[in-house]
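QA checklist item 7 of 12: single-chain prediction sanity check.
[x] sequence parsed
[x] length recorded as 124
[x] structure emitted
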Amino acid sequence: MFKEFKKFIARGNVLDMAVGVIVGGAFSAIITSLVNNIFTPIIGLILGGVDFSNLAITFKDTQIMYGAFIQSVIDFLIVAFCLFLVVKFVNKLTHHKKEEEKPKEPEKTPELKTLEEIRDLLKK
Protein backbone atom coordinates (compact mmCIF):
# COMPACT_ATOMS: atom_id res chain seq x y z
CA MET A 1 0.00 0.00 0.00
CA PHE A 2 2.87 2.38 0.78
CA LYS A 3 4.43 1.63 -2.63
CA GLU A 4 1.16 2.49 -4.37
CA PHE A 5 0.89 5.71 -2.40
CA LYS A 6 4.49 6.60 -3.26
CA LYS A 7 3.81 5.89 -6.94
CA PHE A 8 0.67 8.05 -6.80
CA ILE A 9 2.49 10.98 -5.18
CA ALA A 10 5.45 10.68 -7.54
CA ARG A 11 3.24 11.18 -10.59
CA GLY A 12 3.97 14.51 -12.22
CA ASN A 13 0.43 15.82 -12.34
CA VAL A 14 -0.14 15.39 -8.60
CA LEU A 15 3.00 17.36 -7.78
CA ASP A 16 2.14 19.99 -10.38
CA MET A 17 -1.31 20.37 -8.89
CA ALA A 18 0.07 20.69 -5.35
CA VAL A 19 2.52 23.37 -6.46
CA GLY A 20 -0.30 25.14 -8.31
CA VAL A 21 -2.50 25.20 -5.21
CA ILE A 22 0.32 26.58 -3.05
CA VAL A 23 1.30 29.22 -5.60
CA GLY A 24 -2.38 30.06 -6.08
CA GLY A 25 -2.74 30.68 -2.36
CA ALA A 26 0.24 33.01 -2.34
CA PHE A 27 -1.01 34.73 -5.49
CA SER A 28 -4.39 35.20 -3.81
CA ALA A 29 -2.68 37.20 -1.07
CA ILE A 30 -1.09 39.46 -3.70
CA ILE A 31 -4.41 40.06 -5.45
CA THR A 32 -6.19 40.70 -2.14
CA SER A 33 -3.54 43.24 -1.17
CA LEU A 34 -3.77 44.91 -4.58
CA VAL A 35 -7.53 45.22 -4.25
CA ASN A 36 -7.65 46.28 -0.59
CA ASN A 37 -4.68 48.63 -0.58
CA ILE A 38 -4.74 50.18 -4.04
CA PHE A 39 -7.96 49.76 -6.02
CA THR A 40 -10.55 49.99 -3.24
CA PRO A 41 -9.24 53.33 -1.89
CA ILE A 42 -9.13 54.76 -5.42
CA ILE A 43 -12.69 53.63 -6.11
CA GLY A 44 -13.70 55.00 -2.70
CA LEU A 45 -12.32 58.40 -3.73
CA ILE A 46 -14.15 58.28 -7.05
CA LEU A 47 -17.47 57.23 -5.51
CA GLY A 48 -17.13 59.52 -2.52
CA GLY A 49 -16.73 56.75 0.03
CA VAL A 50 -20.05 55.03 -0.72
CA ASP A 51 -20.49 51.87 1.34
CA PHE A 52 -23.36 49.63 0.30
CA SER A 53 -22.90 47.07 3.06
CA ASN A 54 -25.25 48.87 5.50
CA LEU A 55 -28.22 49.02 3.10
CA ALA A 56 -31.10 46.84 4.24
CA ILE A 57 -34.84 46.40 4.04
CA THR A 58 -36.75 45.47 7.17
CA PHE A 59 -39.68 43.18 6.56
CA LYS A 60 -41.59 42.36 9.73
CA ASP A 61 -38.83 41.20 12.12
CA THR A 62 -36.40 40.18 9.39
CA GLN A 63 -33.74 42.42 7.97
CA ILE A 64 -32.75 41.74 4.36
CA MET A 65 -29.18 42.94 3.88
CA TYR A 66 -29.18 43.54 0.14
CA GLY A 67 -26.39 46.10 0.52
CA ALA A 68 -23.96 43.42 1.71
CA PHE A 69 -24.76 41.46 -1.45
CA ILE A 70 -24.17 44.52 -3.64
CA GLN A 71 -20.87 45.17 -1.85
CA SER A 72 -19.84 41.53 -2.38
CA VAL A 73 -20.59 41.79 -6.10
CA ILE A 74 -18.56 45.01 -6.36
CA ASP A 75 -15.67 43.42 -4.44
CA PHE A 76 -15.79 40.40 -6.75
CA LEU A 77 -15.71 42.60 -9.85
CA ILE A 78 -12.74 44.54 -8.49
CA VAL A 79 -10.86 41.32 -7.68
CA ALA A 80 -11.72 39.83 -11.09
CA PHE A 81 -10.53 42.98 -12.85
CA CYS A 82 -7.27 43.04 -10.88
CA LEU A 83 -6.68 39.38 -11.63
CA PHE A 84 -7.37 40.08 -15.32
CA LEU A 85 -4.79 42.89 -15.32
CA VAL A 86 -2.15 40.75 -13.61
CA VAL A 87 -2.72 37.77 -15.93
CA LYS A 88 -2.67 40.06 -18.97
CA PHE A 89 0.63 41.58 -17.79
CA VAL A 90 2.20 38.16 -17.18
CA ASN A 91 0.97 36.88 -20.55
CA LYS A 92 2.47 39.91 -22.25
CA LEU A 93 5.82 39.23 -20.59
CA THR A 94 5.82 35.52 -21.44
CA HIS A 95 4.52 36.09 -24.99
CA HIS A 96 7.29 38.60 -25.62
CA LYS A 97 9.89 36.09 -24.46
CA LYS A 98 8.44 33.37 -26.70
CA GLU A 99 8.73 35.61 -29.75
CA GLU A 100 12.39 36.23 -28.99
CA GLU A 101 13.08 32.51 -28.55
CA LYS A 102 11.61 31.45 -31.91
CA PRO A 103 14.32 29.78 -33.94
CA LYS A 104 14.94 31.20 -37.38
CA GLU A 105 14.07 29.02 -40.31
CA PRO A 106 17.13 27.45 -41.84
CA GLU A 107 18.17 28.97 -45.13
CA LYS A 108 17.16 26.95 -48.16
CA THR A 109 19.90 25.28 -50.10
CA PRO A 110 20.22 26.03 -53.81
CA GLU A 111 19.11 22.48 -54.59
CA LEU A 112 15.93 22.93 -52.55
CA LYS A 113 15.20 26.24 -54.28
CA THR A 114 15.60 24.58 -57.67
CA LEU A 115 13.31 21.71 -56.67
CA GLU A 116 10.66 24.16 -55.45
CA GLU A 117 10.86 26.06 -58.76
CA ILE A 118 10.40 22.81 -60.70
CA ARG A 119 7.45 21.89 -58.48
CA ASP A 120 5.82 25.27 -59.04
CA LEU A 121 6.34 25.02 -62.82
CA LEU A 122 4.78 21.54 -62.88
CA LYS A 123 1.74 22.83 -60.97
CA LYS A 124 1.13 25.38 -63.74
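[x] summary fact logged: The chain has two domains: 1-47, 51-124.
[ ] second reviewer sign-off
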